[in-house]
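User: quick one, fold this
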Amino acid sequence: MQSNSRILAAEAVGTAGLMIGGPGSAILGGGIGTLGISLAFGLSLLVMAYTIGHISGCHINPAVTLAMVITRKVQPATVPFYIAGQLIGAAIGATIVFGIARGLDDFDTFGNFAQNGWDEWSPGGYGLGSTIIVEVIFTALLVLVVLATTHRSFTPGFNAIAAGFTLALIHMVTIPIDNTSVNPARSFGAAIFSDSDAWVQLWAFIVFPLIGAVLGVFVWLMIDDSRLEDTMVYNPALAQARDMATNAIDEVVEKVDDVTDGKD
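Assistant:
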């Protein structure tokens, strides 16, 4: 088991790397476009996962940490160290990118720092409703993939590739909507050197990715053989609802089998 200080340090290094490679590519990368920025985010996660994954699991995202706690894959006592490392790393990474960007005479210091947002801050002019859907659904997708790749039956060594390409795919779809967060730490880092409106809208990129993380856990429990009873969201009412749904599905499958057998 890694010490809490090593977890904090690893998450800080990993999140800084994500900030430099992800938002850094958007700010410093010239005309690489949505595809290039998306791949930069995915590759940043992939590289950091291979670098610090054996130390902290390479969450580098509070939403992922929340999902890991809910599913009891990490101890609740370690959460403050994960979150502190992620926020510190986001600030360090953003500061490094800012220091480089200031070398351009025409750099718009507080207007072009890959901040997340809607309406006037949305690259495509989308509103808050679209942002909510994006952050909930696509964070759930990221969490689902991360949880699946930590399963005992998943091929060892390929989890970083799956997570990295998932993050790249998410950005390809959602950058035009709200500049893609699915990561409260990433949004916090970008807001530090952005217009004040980025701080006004930051709450959405904290709240909705965390809601998406919880949704991702429930989707994972629907398709995986892990038990609801082994997670922090277990309660008797949920277990009863799960059992009723499972029985209903089994009855439908049985009836379909009977009809199929009769035709044969």
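User: anything notable?
Assistant: The two ends are 57 Å apart (CA to CA).
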